[in-house]
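If you are new to this repository, start here. Below is one unmodified record pulled from the training split, so you can see the exact layout before writing a loader.
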Amino acid sequence: MNCIIPFTKDIKFNTNISEIVSISLEHEYTANPEEILGNFIITGEYKTHEVSVNKERFEHVLPFSVNLTTKIDTDSVDFAIEDFTYEIVDKDTLKVNIEYSINALELKEEEVFEPVPEERESFEEILDSIDEEIEQENEELVLEPEKIEENEETREDNEMNTLIEEKKITEEEQEAILDAVNPAEETFVTYHIHVMSEIDTIESVCTKYNTTQSLLGEYNDLSTVAIGDKIIIPDINE
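And here is the target side for that same chain:
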């Protein structure tokens, strides 16, 4: 699109205007595909009497708007002042005449961007989702005795592999756990792995699994337990 638009405004002063000593015109604007909004800023100095040597300063902001008949590409807008004149009317009024041009590329109908409302989860839905993930992870990590049908040697190998994979233990820690899961006396040991949450304490974990802190200390380093750590919990049956 390419158009020239006239703008006229009468500016009322609080005093008489004898002479405009100096005057300047500036502008500012913002554009969207359907409208251009902006301000003309007129500043300068004037005399109230012909014989006066004193000059009075003035500044006026004149808003304008243009409703476009076609949608435009806002990045292509070229705004320019084509002509600017003024005259004193009724001794206390300054009449300004401005012609300005707007050049911009028109958008094709298929190029017009229509924002799609974004569907956002509520805070409660996000919390429920997190709780479900934690619960599912705990269920997957618990080693249920009735699901383990292998002989004792195979069971101990599988338990060792699970500990290595889930806890990411070092070789020294592997040897220590092997000593713990292969005691001299014949025992049947089931291991649970508990993921620590922000409401968990060592005492609450002991109560939940009916064990003691000293027994947990044989399998875990309890001095640096943080949220998200995995605690190995033995359930020893003679």
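Two things worth knowing about this chain: The two ends are 90 Å apart (CA to CA). The mean pLDDT is 80.
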